[in-house]
Design goal:
Elements lengths: L4 H10 L4 H14 L6 E3 L2 H16 L11 E5 L26 H8 L3 E6 L11 E2 L3 E2 L15 H8 L5 E6 L5 H7 L2 E4 L19 E6 L2 H12 L14 E3 L11 H16 L3 E3 L6 H28 L5 H6 L4 H7 L6 H29 L4 E5 L15 E3 L2 E3 L12 H5 L3 E8 L5 E7 L5 H15 L16
Parallel strand pairs: 2-3, 2-6, 9-10, 9-11
Antiparallel strand pairs: 1-3, 4-5, 6-8, 7-8, 7-14, 11-15, 12-13, 14-15
């Protein structure tokens, strides 16, 4: 049974399989790969009952939509009324929101089933998914490396084919990084393409729900459901497409294994007729630094009480902070309680001056070089050894103190500017770790970007499965 949305939706619809058979397979796979620790909560009987209902609806001629009977995982910082939404932190472990997040409701309205809630870096404040309360998420590729974060559970679940797709959230690369490190596709849409309510912690300007799957075609289906964009998928041949390749600070830290695979991916694009323009984006890193933290810090403080009230819980923000399991996360979360006036000054400057300047800089870069998209390595290195976000790393034989934090080196400017970003697996290193290539576009280019990624995926050919999961279904 091939675990893609395309295959399963068609097979359920034509009677080749049933929603119940698919749900049973999901549960069997979750039991088989329990050691990944990808799933925080699951309700087997609820999933099976929803599958039975889907089969009855189909027998009665009712077809709710393109996801009919397809199980999808939800990152556990996205609100679900029938499951606790813990955000991976002790204070919220058994707390049920009053409402589904709109993105969850759109999935359900399109016929999807909730496969369960996935593990994550505590409060989504980190890039390793080494959760000290719920346990570390394990990579499907090697048991000594991380799956990435903060949406590591979603990435591991999709990589292992526990279900064909998952939702994550992405502020600094929390969808794209885990997808790159786990060998799957992922998409962070442009600003406000998907509804952002029902996500904790709330940072509406920078954060976005993202989608994760094993094929770009599945991302196109999910994008249509979540965005409400009913237009047919576009096809864009790579011949004549112009890609900018900014290096500079985006290659400041770069593992040689990643660089080699990126060079091969760029050569493949060129073989398909694409044009590569080697040019840096002036001031990109400096402008991004003036935007990212100032916006996130203020919006978390401003929005958290509003979110908690809408969620319908009596748990306070102070109680959440007090019970944080990870000392590193608690240290990072504490500045969110800084003096609001000081945070507001920095926020206004970021929103009124630096963010518009960053957006204009990127727009000018595209215009100057007549670009269709940017290509770059999603992360500067393959999955690092299991550890927290403060860990040292060996890069090209040299010790880099605190080097793990560089995992987001190439994934912050997109969210700061609000532009769409897609990651597609590009290759596997000699020591068996996947590397992803990012395609970044201007605001409004979401569908075109997905089409470019699909064209690259087709030119690349089937991507290897993680060795431990190689027999679950066919290569994609």
């Amino acid at each position: 049974m091939e675990f893609t949305i395309e295959y399963l939706a068609a097979a359920i619809r034509d009677g080749s399989t049933s929603a119940v058979a698919v749900a049973e397979e999901v549960l069997a796979r979750c039991a088989r790969f329990r050691q990944l620790n990808a799933v925080i909560s699951q309700a087997p009987e609820r999933l099976l009952e929803a599958a039975r209902l889907a089969d009855r609806q189909l027998a009665a001629g009712i077809d709710p939509g393109p996801l009919h009977g397809v199980p999808i995982f939800i990152k556990d910082n996205i609100d679900t009324r029938d499951y606790p939404t813990s955000a991976g932190t002790p204070a919220l472990e058994k707390d049920y929101p009053r409402y589904d997040a709109t993105v969850v409701r759109r999935l359900l309205d399109a016929g999807a089933l909730i496969a369960g809630k996935t593990n994550l870096h505590e409060l989504a404040v980190g890039g390793s998914s080494t959760n000290l309360y719920y346990g570390f998420v394990r990579s499907t590729w090697r048991d000594d490396v991380i799956a990435g974060g903060s949406s590591g559970g979603s990435a591991a679940a999709v990589s292992a084919r526990l279900a064909p797709a998952a939702l994550g959230t992405d502020t600094n690369g929390s969808v794209r990084g885990p997808c790159s490190l786990s060998g799957i596709v992922g998409f962070r849409p442009g600003f406000r393409r998907y509804p952002g309510d029902g996500v904790i912690p709330p940072t509406p300007t920078r954060d976005s729900v993202g989608i994760m799957a094993n094929s770009v075609a599945d991302l196109v289906i999910l994008d249509g459901v979540l965005s409400g964009d009913a237009h047919a998928a576009v096809e864009i041949p790579l011949d004549g497409v112009r890609f900018g390749r900014p290096r500079g600070d985006l290659y400041k830290i770069m593992d040689q294994r990643t660089a080699r695979i990126m060079d091969a991916a760029v050569a493949l694009l060129q073989d398909q007729g694409a044009v590569i323009i080697d040019a840096d984006i002036p001031g990109l890193t400096q402008l991004t630094a003036k935007v990212a933290w100032a916006i996130s810090a203020y919006e978390v403080v401003r929005e958290m009480p509003v979110y908690m009230q809408h969620r319908g819980t009596e748990i306070s923000v102070d109680e959440i902070r007090e019970k944080i399991a990870s000392p590193v996360v608690k240290q990072r979360f504490t500045p969110f309680t800084d003096d609001m006036n000081a945070l507001e000054v920095r926020y206004k400057e970021a929103m009124e001056v630096h963010r518009p300047r960053l957006q204009q800089t990127i727009n000018d870069y595209f215009a100057e070089h007549a670009l269709d998209a940017i290509v770059l390595p999603t992360t500067p290195f393959p999955a690092p050894p299991m550890g927290d976000d403060t860990s040292d790393l060996m890069i090209n034989g040299e010790l880099l103190r605190g080097g793990f934090s560089s995992v987001i080196q190439n994934t912050v400017f997109q969210s700061a500017a609000g532009i769409p970003s897609l990651v597609v697996p590009a290759g596997v290193t000699d020591d068996g770790l996947p590397v992803g290539i990012s395609f970044d576009g201007l605001q409004g280019s979401d569908r075109a970007l997905l089409a470019m990624g699909h064209a690259f995926e087709q030119a690349r050919g089937p991507f290897p499965r993680p060795p431990a999961c190689a027999d679950t279904d066919a290569d994609r």
